[in-house]
Amino acid sequence: SKSKAKAMDKSGSLSVDSKRGTKNIILGVICILVSNLLYIGNNYIIKWSQLTASEVGMVRGVLQVLIFSGLFIREHTKSNKNLNFENKTKVMLLLYGFFMATSTFACLAAIPMMPIDDLVVICFTSPAFAVIFSYWLLKTDLTLLKILLSIGIIVGDIFVVQPSFIFGEDKMVELEQFSQNSTVDLNDGKNLTASLEILRDQELGTDRMNYYIGVGLCFYTAIGIAFATSLSTKLSSSGMSNNALMVSAAAFGLILSLAFTPVLPNRLLFGESLGSIGYYCLPVAALNTVLAFWFLTLSLDYLRNPTLVGMLRSTQILMSLVSESFIDKMLPDPLSLTGSMIVLASVCCMAIHNWILDNIRKISQAVRENKKELTTATTSIEVQTEAAATTV
């Protein structure tokens, strides 16, 4: 575990222990990109099939517990590794499982409440919180540049969400026309206009409320993922296996999906029909979530750098913008697009934080040296001028 601890870069930059080699970096990058594709695709599957977070979470939890418990037992039966970890490590494992499960559940619950591109961008405030957790848990440096980039991420998300108390208008798409099954009495011409206006206000109020609830869930996802990612890095450096992390998160996820059944109805438990689409999409969505989470966990083990992982995961922002534009057949809102680009640029700059600082130091040092040389040359000229004047 000591050799693994050395692999954790104190600065939180792109550098990775040279012993881990280029192969691990490439594998880590591939794992993140595959995870991103699975997460993006899964968001659309869940939204299209109208599955609830409880339904997906329960099936995913069962699959994940069965698969990774078996792998965990097989791994430790063959290797005979010592499982007597310190109590502190066991507590961190439980905290990891809790925060990873609740963050994933919150993200699933937010999917029906908002556009996918907004959801992805807001979830990627995670690196801003990762700066704090990495400083606390992994003892990385907390610099002014990191703080400024974190502020940039928050500002970018404000442009995406466009809260009414700042922009003066709601970021709401116009509602679809009411269907013929509306509860309004269409024969009552006198009250038709007033009734439609009341219903429209009610629908807009509901959409607005749902959107902001979704925003809150996404921000919780960002905080939870940031904390869980830092814990994962610390646990991996202590010798904890990826299978144990997966089992911990799955167990909490299963408990959570059952606990929230009264709030988010689970049709599987009550024998209700999911519809033909639901029955086909549910196992696919659950398996996709398991695989996406597994690839993300593998990438953390390969790279051992939460900030770099956060940067690479931010490619989801571009993927979501492209996919949403393709589905809606229209370009994103200019402010949302600007905010997304600010978030993406801030996350990427945070990943190359040390490279930026090194170049700033080199430029500053070069300026100081040039200034020193200029001062020396000026002094020499002055001395020569004074000597010449004295001679005259």
How does this model look, in words?
There is one protein chain. The radius of gyration is 27 Å and the shape is globular. Helices cover 77% and strands 0% of the residues. The chain starts with a helix and ends with a helix. It is mainly alpha-helical and 392 residues long.
Residue windows where pLDDT falls under 50 for at least 5 positions: 1-19, 173-192, 198-204
Task: Please describe the biggest sheet, giving its number of strands, its sense, and whether it closes into a barrel.
Answer: none
On the 0 to 100 scale, the average pLDDT is 77
Helix count, per DSSP? 15
Radius of gyration: 27 Å
Helix/strand/pairing class, anyone?
A: mainly alpha
Shape: globular
Our estimate of the beta-strand percent is under 5%
Helix content: over 70%
Number of strands: 0
Summarize the helix and strand pattern as letters.
Answer: HHHHHHHHHHHHHHH
In whole angstroms, the N-to-C terminal distance is: 77 Å
Which descriptors would you attach to this protein?
single chain, globular
Q: What's the helix and strand layout?
A:
Blueprint: H1 2-6, H2 21-49, H3 53-79, H4 87-110, H5 116-123, H6 126-137, H7 144-161, H8 164-167, H9 189-237, H10 242-259, H11 275-303, H12 306-313, H13 315-328, H14 334-351, H15 353-391
Helix pairs in contact: 2-11, 2-13, 3-4, 3-10, 3-11, 4-9, 4-10, 5-9, 5-13, 6-7, 6-9, 6-12, 7-14, 12-14
